[in-house]
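Task: sequence design from structure.
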């Protein structure tokens, strides 16, 4: 009885199954928030979203936004843009809306014209919210006061999840390090 080589016993993949596998891999790579492994082996969320994705998320949650220039160009300081916003930042705004029950109006996003730094508007970590009595009360009565911000002295409050709300007089300047318990 002749013996068969193991290579003849394995089924050959069809072209259709290879295309299906490649399509699934491509879809996973393009999905928002897809995890990426770093050299150290830690998983980090890609996490950047488009202006259209952010506005859709905000619209679904009843969050409004406005700009002095009535525009969304990231390179124009008179616009309010969400291009390259962190997914966690958008989710944190949704968390704030649902937890507070307050009307939220975003007046600053990722557009140029804000202060720089790692945890900046441009890098997708910050949003500005217009002042309103409901929001003011919620922040001041729910979060912990942590003193004045170095540099400009703006009073700050820290949420239980570690996000920081700074009262800049006519608006709240918020650093979202995470999604706020989403």
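Answer:
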């Amino acid at each position: 009885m002749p013996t068969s080589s193991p290579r003849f016993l394995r089924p050959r993949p069809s072209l259709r199954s290879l295309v299906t596998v490649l399509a699934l891999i491509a879809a996973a790579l393009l999905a928002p928030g897809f995890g990426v492994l770093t050299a150290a082996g830690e998983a980090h969320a890609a996490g950047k979203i488009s202006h259209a994705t952010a506005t859709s998320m905000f619209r679904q949650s009843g969050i409004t936004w406005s700009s002095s220039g009535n525009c969304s160009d990231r390179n124009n300081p008179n616009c309010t843009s969400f291009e390259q916003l962190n997914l966690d930042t958008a989710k944190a705004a949704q968390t704030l809306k649902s937890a507070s029950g307050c009307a939220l109006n975003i007046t600053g996003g990722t557009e140029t014209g804000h202060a720089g730094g790692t945890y900046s508007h441009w890098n997708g970590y910050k949003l500005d919210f217009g002042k309103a009595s409901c929001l003011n009360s919620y922040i001041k009565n729910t979060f912990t006061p942590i003193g004045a911000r170095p540099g400009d002295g703006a009073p700050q409050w820290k949420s239980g999840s570690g996000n920081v709300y700074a009262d800049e007089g006519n608006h709240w300047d918020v650093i979202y390090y995470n999604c706020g318990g989403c």
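The radius of gyration is 23 Å.
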